Amino acid sequence: MLAVLIIGCNSPKESKTESTAKTQANTTEKAEQSEDAKIILFFGNSITAGYQLDIDQAFPALIQKRIDSLNLNYKTINAGLSGETSAGGKSRIEWVLKTTPDIFFLELGANDGLRGLPLDETYKNLQDIINAVKKENSSVKIIIAGMMVPPNLGDDYTSEFKDLFPTLAEQNDAVHIPFLLEGVAGNPELNLRDGIHPTPEGHEIVAETVWDHLKPLLEEKANP
Question: I want to staple 80 with a disulfide (CB 3.0 to 4.6 A). Which of 49, 60, 191, 196 is the partner?
């Protein structure tokens, strides 16, 4: 150790060169990690898109910040589209899959429910989306975000809509989030004036809910 200290004191130019080399190596390594990063694809509607917010305030971006803080080699892609139905998602999934995901987060169906669309069609559309993702990557991990609709469409429809998501998750060996907007829905302070879409503070809570279900998959991918 004394020898190291002497070299460090007597050879400042060598020390600076060494430091520069390490910095360049770290930069190169980070670039390589970024290129090889696993992909988490968030595929959804206005909730995922961050309706009326900056994209970096939506929960997928908050998940990316959490991932970066832990130095995990994952990249999130926000493929949310406001107003999207399950049928719309089905029609654009092939284009979105130009980037192959390692983890696929499905957040669709709420607009179907709000419009009272037939649930068998919603189920089929979501299953077709999942099939397309699995065809692209057979080892993909899937998370399905559960949603709820107001009771004005009748108890039967409301109940069947809620049950659609866990059924879909079970049949596809997917992770199921019971209710994506848990702790946010119905709270005026956490939603925009429309009472439907989360504020930035609401998205922070949604991000925590998502992280609780996503984290085990990241650990599983890291330690197969």
Answer: 49
